[in-house]
Amino acid sequence: MSEKRRDRKNRILRSGESQRRDGRYVFKYMDKTGKPQFIYSWKLEKTDKIPDGKRNDLSLREKEKLIMKDIADDIVPRGGEMTVQQLVEKYLSQKTGVRDNTEANYKFVLNIIKKEEFGKRRIDKVRLSDAKCWLIKLQKDGRGYSTIHSVRGVVRPAFQMAVDDDLLRKNPFEFQLATVVVNDSVTREAITRKQERAFLDFVAKDNHFKKYYEGIYILFKTGLRISEFVGLTISDIDMQERTINVDHQLQRKRNMEYIIEETKTSCGTRKIPMSEDVYECFSRIIANRKKVKSEPMIDGKCGFLYLDKNNMPMVALHWEKYFQHICQKYNRIYKIQMPKITPHVCRHTYCSNMAKSGMNPKTLQYLMGHADIGVTLNTYTHMGYEDAKEEVRKICNL
């Protein structure tokens, strides 16, 4: 009868286990494909001490237990040899029939992953801490919260697909984004009331840009998405009830095709009440609207508020360019520089101003067309001392 193999502590080693000359333990096994595989550890049992200078790790027998469980549950070994980038590409290949903007966002996210070392990692090597550290790195590299939110919005379901396909046991991206990445998008993109007034005053006085004043004012005072604003037609503006009916958006594809789409989310369909000054702006826009022989019609919609030089509806890109030129001209004239302002900054500014004015978060969520109250509440998490001081003053004066 052959003598049982033992380690240097005289413990009996199981089948497949051995100890190398340097003291490290090895376990040899056959994976699901019939290929021999090896795992290593400086510890045989969980209670063993790690040698000085060596990184702490699971014991060999803890690793064996996990491997045997994966084999019993038919988990594909080594994540099918798939990298993060390959996994995301496979996931996105199944996303057919999506909107143009969504497809562009997918490409944007994939390009980020291609540039990251993280994208080259094998998916079974990605742990929860690795996923969190990567998102933190993206923010330290200067990526905004909205970009990181978009990245996670693609990577998390891609890893869930790997779990569903038995390539992985757990999804390492199943955690709340706010626990690792700070949402600074509102404070970073919103401007102060003083800057807003200076910007609007400049536009009102400038001979070239003042024809866009009403549209810019409405963007600042309603929080409309720019795609919703450019999609508005005369029939969407109820001047009697003084409401803005938002139930679609206008997009122009890369091939220059104009299309009408549903609002970004189901909550994007809403009615926005007009303030007196917004009502007056719409009155002037309609009164001064460009007269054309033939109204452009997009997917059954006509009567768009602003038309370009080709008598087609102005789209988001037009307004983004106007904002860019206004900021450039302002900063050439004044010593105190205006930060970058875009139509989306107008939306953030409106949200921030309404939050600071004390508007109920659920009301603000409705007006913004946010599907998730968490997006709206993130505005409130960036209130500072002066905001708190003002709130206390208001309460004390009641």
Helix proportion: 40-55%
Specify the overall morphology: elongated
What fraction strand?
5-15%
**Largest sheet descriptor:** 3 strands, antiparallel
Tell me the structural class.
mainly alpha
CATH class of the largest domain: Mainly Alpha
Low-confidence stretches: none
The strands making up the biggest β-sheet line up spatially as 1-2-3
Number of helices in the DSSP assignment: 15
Q: For the record, give the distance between the C-alpha atoms at the N and C termini, rounded to a whole number.
A: 93 Å
How many E strands?
Answer: 8
Looking at the overall shape, the CATH architecture of the largest domain is: Orthogonal Bundle
Radius of gyration over all CA atoms, rounded:
29 Å
Q: Considering the protein shown, what is the CATH homologous superfamily of the largest domain? A: Intergrase catalytic core
Average pLDDT reading: 89
Number of domains as seen in the coordinates = 3
State the order of secondary-structure elements, H for helix, E for strand.
EEEHHHHHHHHHEEEEEHHHHHH
